[in-house]
Specification:
Blueprint: H1 3-13, H2 30-40, H3 48-61, E1 65-69, H4 72-82, E2 90-94, H5 99-107, E3 111-115, H6 126-136, E4 137-140, E5 143-146, E6 153-157, H7 168-177, E7 181-185, E8 193-194, E9 197-198, E10 205-209, E11 222-226, H8 229-239, H9 263-273, H10 276-294, E12 300-301, E13 308-309, E14 315-318, H11 322-334, E15 340-341, E16 356-357, H12 361-367, E17 370-373
Parallel strand pairs: 2-3, 2-6, 3-16, 6-7, 7-10
Antiparallel strand pairs: 1-11, 4-5, 8-9, 8-13, 10-11, 12-14, 14-17, 15-17
Amino acid sequence: MFKNVINLIQETYKTKNHIPLHEPQFIGNEKKYLNDCIDTTFVSSVGNYVDKAEEKLAKYIGAKYAVATTNGTSALHISLILGGVEQNNEVITQSLNFVASCNAISYCKAKPIFIDVDKETMGLSPSALKLFLENNTTIINKQCINNKTNKVIKACVPMHSYGHPCRIDKIKEICKQHYIFLIEDAAESLGSIYKDKHTGTFGKLGVISFNGNKTITAGGGGCIITDDKFLAKRAKHLTTTAKAPHKWDFNHDMIGYNYRMPNLNAALLLAQLEKINDFIDNKRDLANIYETFFSSIDIKFFKEPKDSKSNYWLNSIIFKNKQQRDQFLEETNSNKVMTRPIWTLMNKLPMFKDAECGELTNSEWLGERVVNIPSSVRL
């Protein structure tokens, strides 16, 4: 039934062997920098490559500071702490989401509130956010109080799903009106631009992931980005076990975390950063190939939203219904073409089944229809 799609993907990647969803490409200075890092013996969380990667990343994104971490989840965990999220607070995010966002909220012993997404972005809907806050909260002493639970809604974590920017400017405005700390989950959107600004730079803090399946990788790794000097300094302190600077003494002034990116990972990241523009151009060319092809058949290709330039981390297609989606998943994966459905909605996972939710009409609709197709950089 979907042989034409399978043929296109095999022809595009010039193979009939297994085609992964997104695999890394190492075509630059990766081995050179890794060997140099090993020669220095500084392979853990101290070393020049961490500093170099942070500087290059901040410059690329257009932020004043970047703090490299062990992964995107740890970056989000620290960002929530910096945002003042504490036990019994609540954090607004989207149900159409990767579980790491909600896990990080749970690490703070806070509770998520799930709000719907826009169909056009697959990211948090500012309209749904505004409606929920107007109908369910009260501002008391510059705190947003949930009328139902009497708890403080401390932060909001919208995600730029699959690299496509959400309407983050509108979300920022709403959060400001309601005294809610904004943290951008830009884990998937490195290189994506919204209204001439890089994603992750609209909120007080932004979070990026360098997992092995992302646009560029450090083998793992993540990063906190910010323009706030105090938050950047505190982020670095917290991610290095809150150790006070000293030549030999081990003094720690608060509960800290061993979340600093190792130098070895940073060496790999630095080499990948040198190729990021080429990678994104390649991925956008692939998106054009897909868009042209799917426009000629009865399957919708998800295009970058208005006012956006997406990195197209994972290309997505939308089916008419769940049955058609499942037929496609079965046929493609049986023919060595890796495809996958959108994440299970967070409110349907056992650990978040009792979380408060707004209307999730768009999330449920997309959840039954969206499929990711191979999106690796083509050599």
